[in-house]
Amino acid sequence: MSEDTIRLVTIGRILRRRWRLLAVLTVVGALVGYGTSVLFPPRYTASASVLLPGQWEERELLTQVDIATSSSVVDRAAATLGWRGVSGGELRDRVSATAADGNIITISGTAETPERAQQLSDRVAQQFVRFAAQIAGGSTDAGAATDPEALRQKVAETNRRITDLANAADPGRTVEGVQARTTLEKLRTSLEEAMRKLDQADPATNKATMVVMGPAARPAGEAPPTRMQFIVAGALLFFLLAVIGHLTAARTSRRLRTEPEIAAALRSALLGTVDVPGERLAHRPEGRGPRARIRRLLGLDIRWDTPTPQTSGDEAGRRIRYRRVCARLRDQLPDPRRLLVVVPDGDEIALRAAGQLVAEAESDPSPSSSSTGYPMLRVVGVSVSQPMVPDRDNESGALVVLSAGSWTAGELAGIAEACADAEHEVVGIVLADTVRARPTRSADRPRDAATPALAVGADATGGAR
């Protein structure tokens, strides 16, 4: 197909002529999305924030994010939660952490219920703070004394012991006593100086004192993707696939649309193009069986890729086109002849055009007059899958009438071969085009040319034999 398949007007044509099919496929996609959501139970996500005081570089924050989701922290949280059948490895997939501005790490936990999601995020945040404090204190043992306050208590106790020893020593009576008291005072001074330096440089005091900023808020809604998102995504996916499928089918279609291609496939010359009013095509061929009813219900029995019919002139102008085709046939043939009008089965437009040609041929002066007369035409329908043309009897030629964009080169070549097998020479081709007739007043409307009732696949005779 031409580049017309990617234009917006083509998309609009699909929506206008295939809206029933698109609506059905959209509903089917929504049902598929609903079924998919059943396979994925709803999940809820809660988040807890941990504040990191002090100055932190970006790489240090990323390190703390990795620690918050490490197996050491998550396993401890799993042990404190005590959920049956849920191990630390399973919780590791449900926990995530991100670093935000202001030295804040957000820890998120996902679970089947809002309560569990809240508990998971709170426990992981608590265990993260404890584990970070242990790392800052130089030990990963949970039983180790890593609290700076405990260290200060030890120092205070040592100072008391030093005082007791100093009081027990001989208060200045002997040289040994004076030396012992001096040594103990030096030891006390060294301990106090070491504690001051420890308070100034202790990373546990400056950085590792993390604070959990309150409990996690209980989630009020499901975490994405929700059931509604599944339904909307399924409906949208099926709708887009249907539109893309129509465009792909049109792009890869092998139906012939141009006059030179059709003339080359039938190995004959084009005699002209005739117009068929579009409103007359409102009658659709009545198929039988459930498949035909489904096709009519979904609108599949009407082509969508045909261009929008152009507005034509009046009835008299359309009849002039038919008369010109008949005149070209008359001028091309040496003497009045009987011709078969071959119409592919299923081509409703061509069938009506053939009926109009027969009516115009009947209205021509008889061969006995000064004019040589139009050929006598008889319409036959030919199946494109198994083309079969009646053998040569009174007719001595075939006129092929078809609509553009309906048949492939192979199908038209099959019709040409069927005509040759029946010893009928294809004397010409007539293309039928759909147009929109201009509304006319009922009083001024000319009498419509009689169109014989033609059945596709059955013979219809026009003119005296």
TrEMBL record:
Chain residue ranges for the region called Disordered: 437-465
Domain of life of the native organism: Bacteria
Chain ranges passing through the membrane: 21-40, 228-249
Keyword Membrane: yes
Domain Polysaccharide chain length determinant N-terminal: 4-72
Subcellular location field: Cell membrane
Main location: membrane
Protein family according to the UniProt entry: Belongs to the CpsC/CapA family.
PANTHER family: CAPSULAR EXOPOLYSACCHARIDE FAMILY, TYROSINE-PROTEIN KINASE
Record-given protein name: Membrane-bound polysaccharide biosynthesis protein
